[in-house]
Amino acid sequence: MSHVLVSGGFDPPHYGHYILLMRACQLAGSGGQVTVAVMSDEWLVRKNGYVAMTVLHRASMMGAMAAGISRGLASQGLTKVMSVIDIHQVAPPYSDMGAVLTELGPDIFLNGNDYSETMLPEAERLAARDMDIKLDFSAQTPDHSAALRRRIIAGEHGVKSSPAQRLTS
Prior knowledge:
Elements: E1 3-8, H1 15-28, E2 33-38, H2 41-48, H3 55-75, E3 81-86, H4 97-104, E4 108-112, H5 122-130, E5 134-139, H6 145-153, H7 163-168
Parallel strand pairs: 1-2, 1-4, 2-3, 4-5
Helix pairs in contact: 1-3, 4-5
């Protein structure tokens, strides 16, 4: 039983984020806790140059996704405490995730496979090291946001493979 923290812009929420939440539930184990930290609009502007959906909309959609997953797990006799927070609830505006890691103290900080430890800001790496938080990049998220943005900008539409094919490739 572990506390797993996932974070991101989730702009917009998509299938890759669903996979990320499912992996978080696996890592948390029976009776574990999953917390989803939705990054601020300001953070997204700094990262991407724009915001497609406000933090309130993104947090609402991630909350609905988490609730659906929780209901599905409960029907199998598994329980998860899943909470969705706006980063401003635990850290000042423009803060990095280092403050959130320090405040929440999860056992595991999960990111998708589109990230690596070297890509994390130094404050996050230091907070994880100092608090003995395991960094995990094992969530296989085939449709991560950066890839989706590149496909949309390139004018590519439609799905080139089935979800089952993407999960096994």
